[in-house]
C-alpha cells in the first residue's frame, strides 16, 4: 500500500473515533431521563426507598420494563411497602412514583410495570432485535451497585459477541436447578455481550449508541465463583434478553 494512502487511512480512522464518542455522549444524555431504578418505598423506614434493579420507560411513557427477578425480589418485601420506580435527578435528588405490575414473562425473566398516574416520562424506542448481528456495537446504562454507589447513571460500551442458547452448560446434573430444566425444555437464544454488568444492572436497556434504540434487556452477568465475585472479579461477559420478548409482553398487556 502506498505510504500516502496508508496515511490517509489512519487519518480517517482517528477522525471517526471522536465522532463516535460524541454520538454516544449525545445519546447518553438523551436516554438517561428514560432509565429508572426499581424499588420499594416505606416512609417509616430508613432509608425510605430500597433499590432492587434497573428499568426503562417505553411505549406511552407509563410502561416500564425490567427483569422479572427484580420485581420478584421487590414484592417479597413487607406488604406495607409500595412498589414503584425511582427517578434519579441531579446530585442526590430522587423522586419515587408508585407502579403496578401489568405483566410478567418468567420464561424470559421480563416484567412490565405501569406507572400509577402522573405525567408520562420520556420513552425509549424498541427496535427489532432480529436485525442484530454478531459484532454490533451497543451500549447499556443502569445503576450498578445502586445502594452502594448511589443512583447515578452508569454507561458501558459492549459488543454483541455471540447469539447463544440461554442455557449455560453445567458440569453435572447436580448443577441443574428447576429453572434450568424448564429452559432446557423451551430453549431460546440470548445475546452474549463483552461488556461487564454488575449487580443492580439487571433490567438495564441495551441500545444503539448512535440513536438510543433499545434491542435487549440485561439479564445476568456470567461471574466467576460466588455472586460477590461480580464486584471484585467480574468476568467481562454479560447476557441480555432480545427485545422481541419485550414486544410480546407489551402486546399481551394491550389485548
UniProtKB/TrEMBL annotation:
What UniProt keywords are attached to this protein's entry?
Hydrolase, Protease, Signal
* Gene Ontology biological process: proteolysis
Q: Which interval of the chain is the signal sequence?
A: 1-21
Q: Which GO terms describe its molecular function?
A: peptidase activity
Please indicate which superkingdom the organism of origin belongs to: Bacteria
Query: One Pfam family, short name please?
Result: Trypsin_2
* Name assigned to this protein: Serine protease
